[in-house]
Design brief:
The chain contains one helix and eight strands; from the N terminus they run ββββββαββ. The protein starts with 16 loop residues before the first strand and ends with a strand. The N terminus is likely disordered. This is GRAM protein. It comes from Prunella himalayana. Keywords: Disulfide bond.
Length: 121
């Protein structure tokens, strides 16, 4: 999976492990919709990026994410966050992510001044 070849996940499936962050043994259940959603003029799919955003680009991220990274518990509701993309090479240097930022991840300014990362499926 990469930003140039985005994948659409179906959130109506029963919970199943999905990798979070760098992958590996980290896993979180897929959120499950309470009922079938009918698309309309005001209810649409969130479009995926067709290319990697340049550093400095302001983006809106949407997803369930983890509400407590220590417990690995996903949010019960869809969350949205406005961020500014940082340069992936800078984020991957030894001061921050030590090369853990993969091609399907975006690096952005975290709330504690250090860069944060998010995985895109």
């Amino acid at each position: 999976c990469s930003l140039s070849t985005p994948h659409l996940r179906c959130w109506g499936l029963p919970p199943a492990p999905l990798p979070i962050g760098g992958g590996g043994s980290d896993a979180a259940p897929r959120p499950q919709l309470g009922r079938k959603v009918t698309l309309s003029r005001t209810r649409q799919l969130i479009p995926l990026a067709s290319r990697e955003p340049a550093p400095g680009t302001r983006c809106s991220l949407a997803g369930w994410g983890l509400v407590d990274p220590r417990g690995g518990k996903p949010s019960p509701t869809l969350q949205e966050l406005n961020v500014t993309v940082l340069d992936a090479r800078m984020c991957n240097n030894s001061r921050f992510w030590h090369g853990e930022l993969g091609p399907a991840m975006i690096c952005f300014q975290g709330k504690h001044a250090a860069p944060a990362k998010v995985r895109v499926w």
